[in-house]
Automatic annotation (TrEMBL):
InterPro entries: NTF2-like_dom_sf, SnoaL-like. It comes from the Bacteria. Signal peptide: none annotated. This is SnoaL-like domain-containing protein. Residues 8-133 form the SnoaL-like domain.
């Protein structure tokens, strides 16, 4: 992957724009080749960029097939950064809009990203997404309200 991210927040901006553009190659440029992901959707975990590429390609294809515009926002972002390691935790909201711009639905996940700087560029080496679970019914809570 050839993208260069001199700041940790550059990684998040690239993530956001790549999702909105449904650009798999640009999206994957935010990740290290040995990425390890704990996801709250479908797969318990994902190891390596090839496995992650398959999942992302399927995700973006589903969005394309549905014909919605997917917008991403990051809230409550906290960055802890050292010289070559950084952690980010935040809320990530994915909102689906129709072609006229009307919001159809949204979900918010909690994310933790572990990043490593190599050759002066940040890359995500670990990602963990989660949802709180309702004690009453055992279902995921998809929004902060």
């Amino acid at each position: 992957m050839s993208s260069h991210f001199s700041e940790v927040l550059d990684v998040l901006e690239n993530y956001k724009s790549a999702v909105q553009e449904l650009d798999v190659k640009t999206f994957l440029s935010t990740y290290a080749t040995d990425i390890h992901i704990y996801d709250c959707w479908e797969n318990w975990e994902c190891r390596g960029i090839s496995e992650w590429e398959e999942a992302v390609t399927e995700w973006f294809k589903g969005v394309t097939d549905e014909g919605v515009l997917l917008k991403v926002s990051f809230d409550d972002v906290v960055v802890t950064e050292e010289a070559n390691l950084a952690f980010v935790h935040c809320d990530v909201t994915y909102a689906a809009h129709d072609q006229s711009g009307k919001k159809l639905r949204q979900i918010t996940n909690r994310f933790t990203f572990g990043l490593k700087k190599e050759k002066e560029s940040w890359a995500i080496v670990h990602e963990h997404s989660s949802l709180p679970i309702s004690a009453e019914n055992g279902k995921g809570i998809f929004n902060k309200e």
